[in-house]
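Structural biology now treats backbone shape like a language. To illustrate, our science desk offers a sequence and the tokens encoding its fold:
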Amino acid sequence: MALAKDLSREKVLDAALSILREHGLAALSMRRVAAALGAQPSALYWHVDSKQDLLAMVADKILAEASVAPRASSTRQRLRRQALAIRDALLGVRDAAEVVSFAQALRPWTSTPMRALHDLLAAALPEPAAQWGARTLGHYILGEVAEEQNYAELTRAGIVTEAAGIEYSVDVFLFGIDAILDGLAIN
């Protein structure tokens, strides 16, 4: 049995992320993370304050690769690239949109990729329009990915068929992003 001193925050996060990828959010519990690490659940609390804290840190880990380095391009193109990077990071982990949505409610705009949406808009819009626009983009990204992930789960379970006529693609996703950016008059 692993002791608290044998664990690290990174090991706890890696185990939680592994469970999330393999089994989904419904299966993610402190008890299951501890079992995966060969530890008692109480040992985890040396490294995370609560399950909510764990979920917020997992959300940060999911989004860690989603920051796009600024390049010489328009604000619109940088926002599109940032939105796609967030989408890609979320699609890489089962139920990630739900986890990140929870983390956003718990600790609004603390993740760098989500905050980048605001920072990019703030260069083109006055406050509070930049904040509201970033929230709108964030909600769209999370909602679109959550629906795509739910559809994939329903398809895997045989509840719906691929022939249901719903298309999820980069083009469909960017259509929604562009509609929001058009409404915000972002070029």
